[in-house]
User: Fold this.
Amino acid sequence: MAKPKPKKPAPAEQAVRAAPAAAKQEHKALFIERMSNTKIIIFILCATALCLVPVLQNEFLAFDDPSYVTDNPLIQHLGLGNIKAFFTRQFVSTYQPLVMLSYAVEFKLFGMSGPGFHLFSLVVHLVNVALVYLLAQRLLKDRIAAVVTALLFGIHPLHVESVAWVASQKDVLYACFFLASSLCYLRFVSDNNRKYYLLSMVLFVLSLLSKAQAVVLPVVFLLFDYLQGRKIDGKAIVEKVPFLVLSLIFGVVALTMQTKTGAVQDFSYFPFYERAMFACYGFVCYLLQTLVPIKLSIFYPYPETLDKINSVFVYIAPMVVAALAVVVIKYRKSRIIMFAALFFCITIALVIQLIPVGTAVRADRYSYVSLIGIFLLAGYAFARLYERRPAQQKTLTALAGVYFVIIGGLAFSRTMVFKDSMTVYNNALENYPSFMIYNNRGVIFFNNKEYKEALADFQEVEKIKPAFPNIWYNSGYAYQQMGNMPKALEDYAHALQKDPNNVDILSKVQTIHTTQNNLPAALDDANKIIALKPDMAEAYYSRAELLGRMGKAKEAMADLDKVIAMKPDFVEVYNDRGIANSMAGNYEQALKDFDKMIQLRPNEWNARYNRSLTYKALGRYADAYNDALTAKNNGRQVPEGYLEELKKGAGK
Assistant:
């Protein structure tokens, strides 16, 4: 009777089974093979948490955190209206409703607490580490390979940014659903259970609702099929069609929103060949910093000065990419090498600036999912080396331990860099001086009233990127606060050349002209503002004050009337109109204005004093005395002898 032929193992398993028998036996004797998956995962999670625990002491950053959280009133409530807004509006040029919803939940749990939000990010990252372990074990069928992969994912310094920066929480969140969807898909393939297919699709939608970078998942599913030796036929393609449709819809939505809000640069800003070089440059930098994770930064500027490339490495990078491609093609028969290379390339492709989004050439957070492919290859290679070198296993274990201690220490140190805005900006400028970070640090100095330091940073921006929006405004404002009005006006003039319709700048110029008593120039500024913003009540109020100082009472009164018609609760205008009416001899109308002012703001003692003067003009000395005395008792200066004059007039 003929013996049945043994079943041919899947290609992914063949490589594992190709190891010598003795080595395999030694490998199986390792303590890690005797541990349960639960214990292994707990060990990996504890190691990860230990390396990233400083995140729980970190504050919010001034970089994007205000737009997402600290200055976003929508996340402070969980009502249906707010939830609807999360799903129907863009935030910071992106569509990420699930992230906004998570911020609202965190605010409900922790209030506006930086450590609370960071705790959420850390917990989700730990969940991701566990999912990566399970994914690696399913794909590679090897615990050692899975442990190495998960540890690399958990404590690699490139992943710190996604955990330590609240604005980057979208990366850990989308990755969580991305990985869970992948595991469900693999379970569907192995068990042919439609329940896991549907669950995978639901999780994919949740990933897309967290970040558009998830659109590549259907292609990743094809890579899983390839690695596991599954035949990629019509059936396998059709399975991916619903996922591809979802990717297309969310991809179009994301690109449309980013284009409308100006996040996508003009494609002509850098010609295509330069964008291709920048893409290669970013690609190579990701790989280099994966191998040697040093000189990391929250912001990596384009390697250019005054819009000209300033690094020879940009020109070398395409040749490096070509050489890497040759190596991968040479080893194309190795499924794991091809899988790792394609996984990294496909998942990083959307963020290497071929489509120029934002002002950074790359970002650590963009590699959060992409590096899984590289880590899987590293885990696989280490496990195979371990099996084939039984005599060196202790040495390999020690070397691996030293390596993990080193990158864990780097991750621990990197986590503390995100302690606060000034710390992370100083670190960024130390490694990659850039106009964006100089500007952001300058704003912090400015807000702390350290105007000289702010001005120094703004001047660095002017050297690197003189066309950077708002930089001349910022430096002009710093000069204004320092009392150097000529320099302030000079910089404001630069700003107005680039943005002549900027009402905020015109208002600052008007203020300077007013303080310099150059009233005609100030009035010209006010007229420009009103021409640009005819519905701006504050502009009419400001012009009315100028007209009053210039003795044009009738025109001033007309502007004050407009302000009240446009904004009846504009408190200050009633006091000013009361003064104007009193000066014009319209005492009864003046009293009505002062009465309205005091009604809206009872503790406005200037209005009471002004009403006292009007009462005096009407001969109502007793009322005048009461208002003047009340104003004086509450800190308003009253001229000596005025009260006595009123007392005599009242016959007291």
